[in-house]
Amino acid sequence: MSGSEGTAVITAKALTKRFGDFEAVKGTDFEVRAGEAFGFLGPNGAGKSSTMRMIGAVSPVTSGELRIFGLDPADDGRKIRARLGVVPQQDELDEFLTVKDNLVIYGRYFDIPLKACREKAMELLEFVQLADRADSKVQPLSGGMKRRVTIARSLMSDPEILLLDEPTTGLDPQARHVLWDRLYRLKQQGVTLVLTTHYMDEAEQLCDRLVVMDQGEIAAEGSPAELIRTHSPREVLELRFPAGTNAEHAPKVEGVGARQEVLPDRILIYADDGEAALSEVHRRQAVPESALVRRSTLEDVFLRLTGRTLVE
Amino acid sequence: MMGLSTPPAVRVWEHQLILYRRIWASNVVVSIVRPLLYVLGMGLGVGGLVDDGPRADEVLDGLTYFQFFAPAMIATTAMMVLVNDSLWPIRGGFLWNRTFFSQAASPISPGEIVGGVALWHLTKGLLSSVGVAVVLALFPSTRTWGLIPAVGVGALTGVAFAAPLTTWAAWRETDLSFPNINRFVIVPMFLFSGAFYPISQLPTWLQWFSRITPVWHGVELCRGAVYGGLSLGDVVVHVVYLLAWAGVGWVLARKVFADRLGN
Ligand SMILES: Nc1ncnc2c1ncn2[C@@H]1O[C@H](COP(=O)(O)OP(=O)(O)O)[C@@H](O)[C@H]1O
Ligand SMILES: [Mg+2]
After folding, report:
1. Residue B17 maps to a domain
2. Which CATH class is domain A233-295?
3. Per the structure, how many domains does chain B have?
4. How far apart are CA B20 and CA B27, in angstroms?
5. Confidence band for B168, pLDDT divided at 50, 70 and 90
6. Is some CB atom of chain B closer than 8 A to the CB atom of A272?
7. A68, A87, A92, A112: best mutation site toward chain B, by most B Cβ within 10 Å?
8. Positive or negative CA dihedral for B101, B105, B111, B114?
9. pTM
């Protein structure tokens, strides 16, 4: 991906969504470029789904400006939806129909001729590795399989942009990796991916660029590497002291490293050299039950920006 | 590739049709056997008592009880079938399989989704009415060409219930009211619909209840279609009344669907 070279396919300026007097999205600005994988990283309630539903041209914008393919969803919702693929947060499959019929009927919503729907459905079931389940009912499938059916379904209309709202929440690690692999292939085929997640590893794996979202606002924007570089020293030293003694140990290690976070279960010390920080901790005779040096992640960025962890 | 385009409401209707493919055989059996049992049980059983009664000719307008009761089944069956097709399935479309949300994410608009639901309800109304009409065609005393318009009346009666109940089901947050709608609204309507006896047998205030219920209008129209005897004015009033329930129901349903799918 050539970074800033791609043309903008989605732009939002001061985008706001209110439900009654509650503001779920509080004037966000962002831009998604053709061919990239763009993420919204944030905890539950951050306003990710509300944003996705506005982009999907189903939920009206309260105020601000939103353009998808240069079109205003208030005027051209139907045209926009015709060019999008949507993977909603909750699967919306018809459990009484077969896997294949779920795809076929979805293609019909887009007015694709029935025969073409049938061919396309089989092609896509191959793609998500579920061709052997084409004639099985949806109901007995595992969560990961249902998610793959939903992704196949969203591709029936050959969308230019694929909107994925928490594509892997609730799936086991293996199912997540299968899904990531498929999404990566779609990106290689030129499909623009817009996804939300509260998993920092998912954001790091999939996203070229992302925004960190919290309580309806965007806290930071950039590539995963940029965000980590800008907002967190290179390494993190995680110290675990006996339960309930964090507060007592915190003063002992004060000043070690560039910054510290005292969490309920551990103390994080941010430093460019984690091992050196650990030597300093030992020199001060603060003896943790365990100590671990790791690289900074988006989780640390989130903690830095919001003072909270991503997954409570 | 871009062949003829299909109207959006028809594409929504197709979803129901695919679902129906699985159950059509048992559905057809039910829609013939059930009216057959009713017609035989009520028509012959009760008829045996009533037809020999002293006032039979006067009250039933010269019809046998079997003849009197049987055409009403077209309207009441369509009502029963469509009550079931509009309460829980509509709720399911919002809450369980969330089909309406899937459709709203496609180029189809909420109003067109309601259009597709209405088309499906009409279809089910026609199918159930045809089932009863086939049964009536088996018996010489109820076999007239009037069964054909009566099928249309049955479908219209069904949607006069389905449209407002679709609105209700889409609007309510819970389904606690649904069993009570069946118990306290639909069953009384069925009993006072004029299907089992002419409503002239009822005290005046209950006659007014009957006249308010859409199903009585359907029953009168069906009987009139099969045996004649309704004035043009009566026909217009009955049809307009049924259309009004369906029309108001659909207009409200469009509003509720639009609010719920696009908030
Ligand atoms: N239809 C709605 N009506 C009222 N409040 C809503 C509605 N949808 C979302 N919210 C509220 O808006 C906030 C953001 O929700 P959402 O966009 O779903 O966040 P996320 O997807 O990041 O978890 C939450 O506090 C949620 O309760
Ligand atoms: Mg969400």
Report:
1. no
2. alpha beta
3. 1
4. 9
5. very high
6. no
7. A92
8. negative
9. 0.93
